[in-house]
Backbone:
């Protein structure tokens, strides 16, 4: 198979805060058509990795190239419109009074409110179609702050696709969801993984049970360091997962989904 186009590249990336290494010597490459899951325990640096990849944080050292543009030598505001980003940090910045359809449509400009840009009827139709895709078109007029955690996550997924971006970065989209909400979201992510092989997806999670079918690669992060990365089927083993989380684990794959438990 021909390798896809490089969409995200880290070269020796380090992030230092108050003298502490949050990320250490991360070298990583994401190509079009790849669906990555980033796994690691709390405090391993996953969110910091996402913030750098989504252009919200500059590394202390190293080189970051996103969609062929080098961080530090490009207009991140313009480049961010070509990345679909879903995270709790973004959700927290969205005004609770915004309607769900407005939250989605603002993804066109990577904006947080709809008042500083103009949107066409076609833009609003697209936003409605994305809400429908994720099963929440009936919530289009609902205020974002009144939605359940699962509903907010589905609205944010719609927002990430507003510009048909080549790179999607999803930071713990299942966090805080109950079992039904988690499974619905995993189903949506599996559907996203099966379409448009020109794009790439990076999904951050703590749990192997949340890896959607169709994901192809994994990065294991432990204490700010890259433990292993590469094709999911080769890299994700009980031994590596145990080393990553610092506890002895069993790992199995059942009906296309991964399951891990302590021993």
Residues:
């Amino acid at each position: 198979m021909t390798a896809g186009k490089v969409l995200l590249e880290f070269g020796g990336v380090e992030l230092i805060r108050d003298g502490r290494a949050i990320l250490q010597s991360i070298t990583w490459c994401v190509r079009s058509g790849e669906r990555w899951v980033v796994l690691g325990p709390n405090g391993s640096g996953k969110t910091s990795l996402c913030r750098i990849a989504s252009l919200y944080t500059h590394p202390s050292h190293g080189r970051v190239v996103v969609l062929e543009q080098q961080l530090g030598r490009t207009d991140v505001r313009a480049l961010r419109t070509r990345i679909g980003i879903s995270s709790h940090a973004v959700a927290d910045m969205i005004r609770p009074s915004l309607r769900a359809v407005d939250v989605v449509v603002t993804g066109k400009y990577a904006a947080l409110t709809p008042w500083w840009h103009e949107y066409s009827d076609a833009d609003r139709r697209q936003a409605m179609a994305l809400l429908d895709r994720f099963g929440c078109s009936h919530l289009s007029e609902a205020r974002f702050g009144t939605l359940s955690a699962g509903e907010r996550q589905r609205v944010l997924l719609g927002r990430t696709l507003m510009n048909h971006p080549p790179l999607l970065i999803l930071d713990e989209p299942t966090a805080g969801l109950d079992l039904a909400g988690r499974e619905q979201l995993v189903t949506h992510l599996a559907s996203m993984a099966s379409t448009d092989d020109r794009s790439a997806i990076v999904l951050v999670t703590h749990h192997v049970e949340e890896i959607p079918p169709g994901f192809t690669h994994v990065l294991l992060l432990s204490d700010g360091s890259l433990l292993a990365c590469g094709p999911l089927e080769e890299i994700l083993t009980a031994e590596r997962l145990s080393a990553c989380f610092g506890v002895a684990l069993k790992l199995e794959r059942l009906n296309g989904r991964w399951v891990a438990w302590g021993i």
